[in-house]
Amino acid sequence: MFALPLGVAIAWSHAGEMETNVLLNTLRQMRQALSLMISAVLRTTPFAVVSLIAGAISTYNTSGSTIVSQAGFLILAFVTGVVSHTLLLMPFLFFLFTRANPYNYMKQLVPAYMYAFGCSSSMATLPVAVAVVHQTRQVSRSMAQLVMFLGTPVHMNAAGVYYPLMMIFLAGMSGANDKIGTPQLVVLFFVSLIGSMGTAPVPNAAIVMLMTVWKTVLPTTPLPLSFVYIVACDFVFDRLSTVTNVHGNMFVTRILAQRYDDPVAAWSDETSEDARTPVPGV
Question: Any stretches that span the bilayer, and where are they (predicted)?
């Protein structure tokens, strides 16, 4: 939220052209440098995840078949939640506000889904998602950039499924069901809501946030050993969560464009501008 007033202040503090704004150019260069650093971290993430999963499984003193069965039930429950949200709830809201076929729109977003599943990062998928939404010709470039850049850090649909499900799973596996009453459920609701707007859009960030959620809901109960199940399955949860989050942002962008955007005029302006751009050497 600090970025919005900072951007306005930077724009108002300079009277000349934006290209000559030294502070703006400095921040752009810092963003580029940080993006390169994030890309380097993403390339090394698979190796770290492998060691994390191996350590988690070896720590828990139980049979391999038990681990697989419990992890399978957990994954099935999570998949059911995100699929219901992605294929039923969001398309229903899409049709309710736009009166258009949501599944035809989803077909055009497949490249963004594939990229999100592969890289497991909403932030890394952002440029691809913006380009795909714009290429549908149902959203202008400016609208896609504005809504997607604002929505990626604060609109985490999958977190609303992830945190409550994992908390109930951990409580059940550790025998702490009797400690979760109405007050704890109310706290869990609000913490999950805040977590869906505060979780970093980078790989494996939900694991760290889940520990915070546990300590908030059950502050006197230590984190159970069954947490290793979630760590072991996180490579699946994280990828599905990323696809769900990107899907939600692209749908909300299209819904807002229905009310506040004119993509036809925007495409005409962009086409005219491209036609007026001189070709080098001609």
Answer: 34-60, 72-97, 112-134, 146-165, 185-210
